[in-house]
Automatic annotation (TrEMBL):
The keyword Lipoprotein does not apply. This is Glutamine--fructose-6-phosphate aminotransferase [isomerizing]. Homodimer. It is an enzyme of class 2 (transferase). GO terms for biological process: amino sugar biosynthetic process; carbohydrate metabolic process; fructose 6-phosphate metabolic process; protein N-linked glycosylation; UDP-N-acetylglucosamine metabolic process. The active site is at residue 360. One of its GO terms (cellular component) is cytosol. It comes from Rhizobium favelukesii. The gene is glmS1. Involved in the production of the root hair deformation (HAD) factor specifically on medicago. Catalyzes the first step in hexosamine metabolism, converting fructose-6P into glucosamine-6P using glutamine as a nitrogen source. It comes from the Bacteria. Keywords: Aminotransferase, Cytoplasm, Glutamine amidotransferase, Repeat, Transferase.
Length: 365
């Protein structure tokens, strides 16, 4: 049932504040602002490193997770798309743990990677939406993302719920490994607790602007997304979302890679979507944006209030989100990305929930 939404994708985008609060409350205790003990189903303290494997959007969530595990838990992460991971013949040892991320829990390559790791004696954790799935069944520890059924082929609420669970796991791992203090833990959990409310506010705030910008995007043949740090996987997620439902060619790049190739594509016909919260990477990303502006590129700047105040570069549009803590920025910045893709596809009249050639769950290699 789509309720009063035109598509499941739209409904699922607007469900995010609610489902994310379910995901958070499963792994956090908001009375004490601490991470719950259920994340200890994986013994992160005894783990030498973490191998993450997944496909598509789930892989991009894992890539954000990598930044968090390394930063907050000082836990080295090896991550790859499952179709490569399973054949890489990576040296693995039982001192490592492996994490598989999958909405459906049935993705063939992800399952094959899981079996490969299991065979090598690694402890297996699964971040899944469907708890009765094969991936869930074959894992030692299940971390449900609590998103509820996701019908739209383009993953939206599963992505942000995967991020919420990965944030909890990374902070829990940091706590177990003694790399974050009790005070930091309380502070970060407090920020995460505010996320559902901020998400609702942002969805309402940006909707009209996303709709009018999408009219412009729908005229383009190519779109480039740029970001640094955790905004780099978001750039790739933005490009994936746009291409899969609007069929516009889009690419996501690490902002610093711009001058190593993609800058050759910049002209007034290709919009560049720059994802840049006012974090420690901001100035670097703005200098890349400057390179785009200098070549006549049209910029759609997705930033926050502090970022908008700090950059004076001319843009085609600036989307101003509220200033939020770094730990929740990837989830909040997912919202304009999802809405831009959604409205662009609606303008173009594509089959938003069932894009051509795609299946919700890829159970063959
Ligand atoms: O069910 P899974 O999370 O394992 O699926 C992985 C990908 O097939 C999936 O995320 C795909 O990339 C989506 N269509 C992206 O929106």
């Amino acid at each position: 049932d789509k309720g009063n939404h035109r598509h499941f994708m739209e409904k699922e985008i607007y469900e995010q504040p609610e489902v994310i609060s379910h995901a958070l409350s499963r792994y956090m205790d908001f009375a004490s602002n601490t991470i719950s003990d259920n994340i200890n189903a994986i013994d992160f303290k005894a783990t030498s490193s973490l191998a993450i494997s997944a496909c598509g959007t789930a892989y991009l969530a894992g890539l954000v997770g990598k930044y968090w595990f390394e930063r907050y838990a000082r836990l080295p992460v090896e991550i790859d798309v499952a179709s490569e991971f399973r054949y890489r013949e990576m040296p693995l040892s039982p001192s490592q743990a492996a994490l598989f991320i999958s909405q459906s829990g049935e993705t063939a390559d992800t399952l094959a990677s899981l079996r490969y790791c299991k065979d090598k004696g690694l402890k297996i954790g699964a971040v899944v939406n469907v708890r009765e799935s094969t991936i869930a069944r074959e894992s030692d520890a299940i971390f449900p993302i609590m998103a509820g059924p996701e019908i739209g082929v383009a993953s939206t609420k599963a992505f942000t719920c995967q991020l919420a669970v990965l944030a909890a796991l990374a902070l829990g791992a940091g706590k177990a490994r003694g790399t974050i203090s009790a005070e930091q833990e309380r502070e970060l959990v407090r920020h995460l607790a505010e996320m559902p409310r901020i998400m609702s506010r942002v969805l309402n705030l940006i909707q009209p602007q996303m709709e009018s910008l999408s009219r412009e995007l729908s005229k383009c043949r190519d779109v480039l997304y740029l970001g640094r740090g955790t905004s780099f996987p978001l750039a790739m997620e933005g490009a994936l979302k746009l291409k899969e439902i609007s069929y516009i060619h889009a690419e996501g790049y690490a902002a610093g890679e711009l001058k190593h190739g993609p800058i050759a594509l910049i002209d007034e016909n290709m919009p560049v979507i720059v994802i840049a919260p006012f974090d420690r990477f901001f100035d670097k990303t703005v200098s890349n944006m400057q390179e785009v502006a200098a070549r006549g590129g049209r910029i759609i700047f997705i930033t926050d209030e502090a970022g908008a105040a700090a950059s004076k570069l001319p843009t085609m549009a600036t989307i101003v989100l509220p200033d939020v803590n770094e730990i929740i920025a990837p989830m909040i910045f997912s919202l304009p990305i999802q809405l831009l893709a959604y409205h662009t596809a609606v303008f173009m009249g594509t089959d938003v929930d069932q894009p051509r050639n795609l299946a919700k769950s890829v159970t063959v290699e």
